[in-house]
Specification:
The complex is a heterodimer of chains A (about 110) and B (about 120). Chain A has about 110 residues and is an all-beta fold. Chain A is about 0% helix and about 45% strand. In chain A, a hairpin with a 2-residue loop joins strand 5 and strand 6. The chains are: A mainly beta (about 110), B mainly beta (about 120).
């Protein structure tokens, strides 16, 4: 079981807005930044969001992140078929002294 | 731009040591402020941080693997490496090398290798 909790699956139709949630605790999300990664099938993960809500250059503004208390969310607006992928949240855990990941959410575009 | 490439044996026998190397191209590994990292993904599962070496100096490890792992940096060859001893079938995974730090923060892995599959079997 992962330190950060994500729903195993999510889905949406093209053009829709979907939200993927990540739940943690005071020792990780509650006191450290959250990052989000997109992993397309058969490829390495790609940094999507850093420092809770910042996008690296080249990431479309359809992707946005937020953090509130011990939870974080990734929102994808204007859903496209190429957004079908696994999404992982990640943070640092002060108690474990370790980088921790969520279990991942598999996004299906219907 | 900086690119990472993993290399090493795809098959390791149980109880032996898994050794992988990540070659950094397009930039100097000792340019400062980076965390050179290893992350693995068990078949069909999520991501697990193994550890990183910061700034070609101190290393930090996942507590669950700490007793078996060494991550080191070879600045002369612009590479960093992973050694995981006493492997079992549970260490079968895709192993990724990755970079964090500097622009995006200590735990934001902005560059990844393509990954290498390592199987532990006799």
């Amino acid at each position: 079981q992962s330190v950060l909790t994500q729903a195993p699956s999510a889905s949406g139709t093209p053009g829709q807005r979907v939200t993927i949630s990540c739940s943690g605790s005071t020792s990780n999300i509650g006191s450290n930044t959250v990052e989000w990664y997109q992993q397309l099938p058969g490829t390495a993960p790609k940094l999507l969001i850093y420092s809770n809500n910042q996008r690296p250059s080249g990431v479309p503004d359809r992707f946005s992140g937020s953090r509130s208390g011990t939870s974080a969310s990734l929102a994808i607006s204007g859903l496209q078929s190429e957004d079908e992928a696994d999404y992982y949240c990640e943070s640092w855990d002060d108690s474990l002294m370790s980088v921790v990941f969520g279990g991942g959410t598999k996004l299906t575009v219907l | 731009q900086v690119q990472l490439q993993e290399s090493g044996p795809g098959l390791v026998k149980p109880s032996q040591t898994l050794s992988l190397t990540c070659t950094v191209s397009g930039g100097a590994i000792n340019s400062g402020g980076y965390y050179w990292s290893w992350i693995r993904q068990h078949p069909g599962k999520g991501l697990q941080w193994i550890g990183y070496n910061y700034n070609s100096g101190s290393s930090y490890y996942n507590p669950s693997l700490k007793s078996r792992v060494i991550i080191s940096v070879d600045t002369s060859n612009n590479q960093f490496s992973l050694r995981l001893r006493s492997v079992t079938a549970a260490d079968t995974a895709i192993y990724y090398c990755a970079r964090a730090g500097n622009i995006y923060g200590a735990n934001a892995f902005d560059i990844w290798g393509q990954g290498t599959v390592v199987s532990v079997s006799s």
